[in-house]
From TrEMBL:
<protein>
    <submittedName>
        <fullName>MFS transporter</fullName>
    </submittedName>
</protein>
<keyword id="KW-0614">Plasmid</keyword>
<keyword id="KW-0472">Membrane</keyword>
<keyword id="KW-1133">Transmembrane helix</keyword>
<feature type="transmembrane region" description="Helical">
    <location>
        <begin position="136"/>
        <end position="157"/>
    </location>
</feature>
<feature type="transmembrane region" description="Helical">
    <location>
        <begin position="163"/>
        <end position="181"/>
    </location>
</feature>
<dbReference type="InterPro" id="IPR036259">
    <property type="entry name" value="MFS_trans_sf"/>
</dbReference>
<dbReference type="GO" id="GO:0022857">
    <property type="term" value="F:transmembrane transporter activity"/>
</dbReference>
<keyword id="KW-0812">Transmembrane</keyword>
<feature type="transmembrane region" description="Helical">
    <location>
        <begin position="19"/>
        <end position="38"/>
    </location>
</feature>
<dbReference type="InterPro" id="IPR011701">
    <property type="entry name" value="MFS"/>
</dbReference>
<feature type="transmembrane region" description="Helical">
    <location>
        <begin position="77"/>
        <end position="96"/>
    </location>
</feature>
<dbReference type="Pfam" id="PF07690">
    <property type="entry name" value="MFS_1"/>
</dbReference>
<feature type="transmembrane region" description="Helical">
    <location>
        <begin position="50"/>
        <end position="70"/>
    </location>
</feature>
Length: 220
C-alpha cells in the first residue's frame, strides 16, 4: 500500500462512481415511485419495499463484502458491484409483477454494498494509505450531491419518457460509472512523494532498511 497522495483526477473519477451509483440506486425509488404506482397499480408498500429489501441485504452481506474487498481489493469489488447494479436496473425495467419487482432488489442490494462507499474508501486507502483522508472527504461530498442532481434529472426523464425507459437510462448511467474505474487499475493517478519531502525521506529510509536487511540475510 502506497503511503502517498492522490491526484485530483483520480479522486474525481472515484467520486463520480459514487455520484452516479448513489443516484441510480438509493434515490431511484423516490424519483420514479409515483410513476411506477400509477402505471402498475402497485401499492406504495410494494413499490418502496424494494429499497428496504436492498438495505437489508446490504447489512446481511457486509461481512462477506468486507472479506472480498480485503482479498481482492476495493477496485475489483467496486466494478463488480456496479455491474450488478447495471443488471438490476435493466431487469427492473422489464418487471411486470410484484414478485419480479421485489426479486430484483436483493441483487441491487448486493451491488450497492460493493459499489458504494465501502469499496471506494478501500480503493482510496489501498492506493494512498494515510494520504487518503482528504480524498475520502471529497468523494463523500460528491456522493452526497447525487440527491441534488438525480431528483431533477429523474423528474426530467419522466417528462420525456415512461419510468421503464427512464430506469434503462439509469442502467446506462451505471455503465458510465463503470468506465470511470479502469483508468486507474494500474495505479494511474497516484502522485509519488516529492524529493526532499517527509514522505520521500521515509520511503527512501524504508527502502534502505529493506536492502540492508536483505544484504545481511535478516528477514523483515
Amino acid at each position: 500500500m502506497t503511503d502517498g497522495y492522490l491526484t485530483g483526477r483520480t479522486i474525481f473519477c472515484i467520486g463520480m462512481t459514487q455520484f452516479i451509483n448513489w443516484g441510480i440506486t438509493f434515490y431511484m425509488p423516490g424519483v420514479f415511485g409515483s410513476a411506477i404506482m400509477l402505471d402498475t397499480g402497485w401499492s406504495p408498500v410494494v413499490t418502496f419495499s424494494g429499497l428496504t429489501i436492498a438495505m437489508l441485504v446490504m447489512g446481511l452481506v457486509s461481512p462477506l463484502a468486507g472479506a472480498l474487498i480485503a482479498r481482492t481489493g476495493g477496485r475489483t469489488m467496486m466494478m463488480a458491484g456496479t455491474f450488478a447494479i447495471i443488471i438490476g436496473c435493466f431487469l427492473m425495467a422489464f418487471t411486470h409483477s410484484t414478485t419480479s419487482w421485489v426479486a430484483v432488489w436483493p441483487l441491487m442490494g448486493a451491488g450497492m454494498r460493493l459499489a458504494l462507499y465501502d469499496a471506494a474508501f478501500a480503493l482510496l486507502v489501498e492506493t494512498a494509505g494515510a494520504g487518503a483522508r482528504r480524498a475520502i472527504t471529497l468523494v463523500t461530498l460528491l456522493g452526497g450531491l447525487a440527491s441534488v442532481a438525480f431528483w431533477p434529472a429523474g423528474a426530467a426523464l419522466l417528462h420525456i419518457t415512461d419510468w421503464r425507459h427512464a430506469i434503462i437510462v439509469y442502467g446506462c448511467a451505471g455503465i458510465v460509472s463503470l468506465l470511470f474505474c479502469p483508468p486507474f487499475r494500474q495505479g494511474i493517478g497516484v502522485n509519488l512523494p516529492l524529493p526532499g519531502s517527509p514522505l520521500f525521506r521515509r520511503s527512501e529510509q524504508q527502502k534502505t532498511e529493506k536492502h540492508s536487511s536483505a544484504a545481511c540475510g535478516t528477514p523483515r
